[in-house]
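#struct-pred

JT: dropping the chains for the assembly here, can someone run the whole complex?
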Amino acid sequence: MRQIWKHFLGFVGSSARVRGGFVALLAVLSPIPAAALVEIDITQGNVEPLPIALPQFSAEGGDSKLAADMTAVIAADLKRSGLFNPLDPASFIQKNMSVNSTPRFGDWRTISAQALVTGTVTKQADGRLRAEFRLWDVFAAEQMLGQQFYTTPENWRRLAHIIADAVYERLTGEKGYFDTRIVFVDETGPKDKRVKRLALMDQDGANVRYLTRGDDLVLTPRFSPTSQEITYMSYAGADPSVYLLNIETGQREIVGNFPGMTFAPRFSPDGQSVVMSLQQGGNANIFKMDLRSRQTTRLTNTAAIDTSPSFSPDSGRIVFESDRGGSQQLYVMSAAGGQAQRISFGPGRYSTPVWSPRGDLIAFTKQHQGRFMIGVMRPDGKGERILTEGYHNEGPAWAPNGRVLVFFRDTPGANGGPQVWTVDLTGYNEQRLETPAFASDPSWSPLID
Amino acid sequence: MFNMVSASNGARWIAVCFAVLFAAACAQTKPDGLATNVKPGTGQDFVVNVGDRVFFEEDQSTLNSQGQATLANQAKWLNRYSQYTITVEGHADERGTRQYNIALGARRAQAARDYLVSQGVSASRIKTISYGKERPVAVCNDNSCWSQNRRAVTVLNNATN
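RK: done, full complex below.
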């Protein structure tokens, strides 16, 4: 379902050329040689955000509000990432920029801009929207990127996110994550009578819509890494069970025919299976169901609570939590089941592990001395780092580029409730994501195709 | 009102009344005595005179002696009024993670169910369900509330009051 068409733009002026094949990433703070390209080294902890100028896109066909709104969405995405510092437009010397303007680079250097994005939004006679932008390296006085998009006008926010992703990717060397959505549990009503609904929003909190009505308790929605499908737990049937929901068609179905409650579902990296827990008596064990063949496979068999399974991105292994050793700890096993290796050994209880899409880290919730933390460790259990800590932080989920984590933070007492927050992998740039009401169990979509 | 009650017995009685949702019945019931105006064999009789819930320690699903006594009384009552089927609902407090608490609630429901079966209640009459930490009855921010939420509640499926 492709809704947005992309073309690459040629270059403005004869002297502007893209340099290809650069290898070295330059740290923002290091002195930048005159001919060097502006890039962000995001492997550092607290990077100084890159000063970037985003003059309001020009409007062809008269819709300057749309042009202003699109520019604002792009700037907000980049700012929110913590890696960019969009400069105050009041400081801009060169005015009235469009995608065809040749930048006076001296003017942009004067205000310390290191990158510049120019653009034009056009309402075409055929009703479609055309958006073009160029990304400029101010110090090298060169165009770094130029792209043109066509879409229907109602897709304007997505288009802005796609442009922000292109800028992010070109300057950081990593895939962006702005043209994505987050599914979560919307929570309304008093604490002892909460109504919970599945809800979906753009990654910046816009375009909230509700996927269930609140008649049934719903929990732990998880996005498919390959499609616009989610799996979640619902109390709609006789036993609480894991369901699938296609968010485009609204079609929903129960996953498998298990003799008891199923919960804590998550997709495999190819989106073709779901792993989950099955409760039998006092024990929970992990099962996998192949969504095509409908075949189910038992992966653990213990007199314990084994839950929250999450695949490694190469599909070879599964991390999960178990209290088989007396308290909740993290274990890794083959995706076929069998022997599991405990990987968490710090003080406290570890739960809700989730493997980074980059494969290098596992994020988790940790409880210790009445505090709830979000942390990451390597798949061998080494290198544990706590990213955030407080009264109650729970349920991390990764952005599709493995750079940012989204989680929920609960506040105590009768009037307290969960809210959605994001934090950078480094532990910096913690930010609340505004939701219409209390919200929990956020899960990030893949980049929308 | 919950956070003003510190003694656990008192808290439990308020919780019971809350569950019944009959203010009048609560007003006429003393913690140490039986309600006088409740018809025997009714759902109200079960909740008020037998006690519909047992409580657990943090992260535990072991029944204490008080819980065992309550369940023994429930079994006696259920064996007398055999027209009822029951659902045992397991719950956890909010100081845990969601998925684990679903399983922990299930464990608690299972512990209560097993005890009822050991006291002669037919397993075919009992269904269990867990709500994890999703259905608290007490909402304050200390153990006086959390201890009320760590519970297994026996619900009569076809009760009339």
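JT: nice. Chain A touches chain B at residues 190-192, 194, 196, 217, 219-220, 233, 239-240, 261, 263-264, 277, 279, 281-282, 284, 305, 307-308, 321, 323, 327-328, 351-352, 365, 367, 370, 392, 394-395, 410, 412-414, 416, 440-441 (CB under 8 Å). Confidence is low (pLDDT under 50) at residues 12-36 of chain A.
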